[in-house]
């Protein structure tokens, strides 16, 4: 009787979740959901969903993206001392190139970011935390938790369209003056927004599950690495605009 009960429990633990239950679970019960996902890791499904949503949002955001990109290019060209004719010619050529590479770049960038993210968190899990995880497990955890900032993008979409600017985020930086948006502090604080914090929290739970460690021993590593990343990106943004 004991053996049958144990086997039944094991079968329940090994039972897979369908895609929609995985997605729902990542938002509502990440610990339980990741315990199922690491047994049956599937990173391409959530990646495909992120790609489709990203492409859809890009369709709506394309005019704003092109506009802001052109503004930044004009400022850069003027700093180089280019004439108005040279700037117009460069912008025309740039627009033609962007027209063809914008959508493919969304697909490639999403896949590359998921794979690189999986590889990086595999290193953190196995080398820094002493786990024995597999690449597909971390890639799956990383891909599913990226559905959270994707949801954030969908929520921001109508606000971006209404304000006609990509500079929309739910962070402390929102309360800072627009005149400070190019400062290091603004860029750093803009990264620490609600959906990023939520996503990082879910990632931490996923890594704790796959390494069989407590969350309290995992979150300092993940938080520190992300703070370093935010500092680097804020510095690069300040340096290159």
Q: What does the model show?
A:
The structure is a single chain. By secondary structure, this protein is an all-alpha fold. 80% of the residues lie in helices and 0% in strands. The protein has 10 helices and no strands. Helix 5 crosses helix 6 (135-145). The longest helix is centred in the middle third of the chain and has 45 residues, at 84-128. The protein is globular, with a radius of gyration of 21 Å.
Annotation keywords:
241 residues; disordered N terminus
Task: Give a brief rundown of this model.
The chain has helices spanning 2-14, 19-28, 30-37, 44-79, 84-128, 135-145, 147-163, 184-191, 194-211, 215-240.
Low-confidence stretches: 1-11
Report the portion of residues in β strands. under 5%
The main sheet comes to: none
Number of strands: 0
Give the number of helices: 10
Taking Cα atoms only, what radius of gyration do you get, to the nearest Å?
A: 21 Å
Averaging pLDDT over every residue, what do you get? 88
Helix and strand run: HHHHHHHHHH
What is the SS-derived class?
A: mainly alpha
This entry's quaternary arrangement is single chain
Shape: globular
Report the span from N to C terminus: 68 Å
Percentage of helical residues? over 70%
